[in-house]
Amino acid sequence: MPESARSTVNRLGLACRLVFGLGAGLTVAGGSSLAAPPDTTQGIYTCVDAQGRRLTSDRPIPDCNAREQRVLNKDGSLRAVKPPPLTADERAEKEAAERQAAVQKAAQADAVRRDRNLLARFGNEADHRKARESALDTVRAAIKTTEVRQAELTAERQPLELEAEFYKGRTLPLRLKQQIDANDAAVDAQKSLAQNQTQELARINRLYDAELERLRRLWAGAQPGTIGPATASTALKPAAASAPR
Fold it and tell me: Are the beta carbons of 224 and 119 closer than 8 angstroms?
């Protein structure tokens, strides 16, 4: 091929590569750009505005910011629905519902945890009965201590009453009056303590009764957290041995 012909072919090849490689930057007659088609990978947005007009765009439509917008695929099928923004009341209601759901979820998780802990602590009724008796024995020992103290106060009271008989109809000496008042206060304190200890025995039994009922259902195959609210695990604190002397 003559050198001039080869040069002409090379120039034509270069021109073709420029046209096809840089076509987006060239213009055609009349000044129209050879722009690439719009990118629809993000979907096609469509909505009906406040005037009832159907609007379509390749990006979210500002005129429908307060209205529902549908996002379509290239073939016209529905990809997603972009809801309108919530009002202040709707947002507050949604947040309240989310908080309530979170509370319920936490309560359920807590019930599951409590049930699993019960199963880990007690393999059978004998284990549970042993734990109950241990808790009750602590309070029973405190009750015995209270009874001993009450007997001591009764014994301390007898000589005070005998001495007070000597002053019958007269003003008691200050020392004797203070001793009698102190004895009265100590007796009242021990009575209140004994009442609290009796209530503590009942509370412990109620707790273990509720636990046992729950455990029986768990031992029978119920899944943790599926048998209603878990019993509150109030700490079992030993009752005080006696009131201040």
Answer: yes
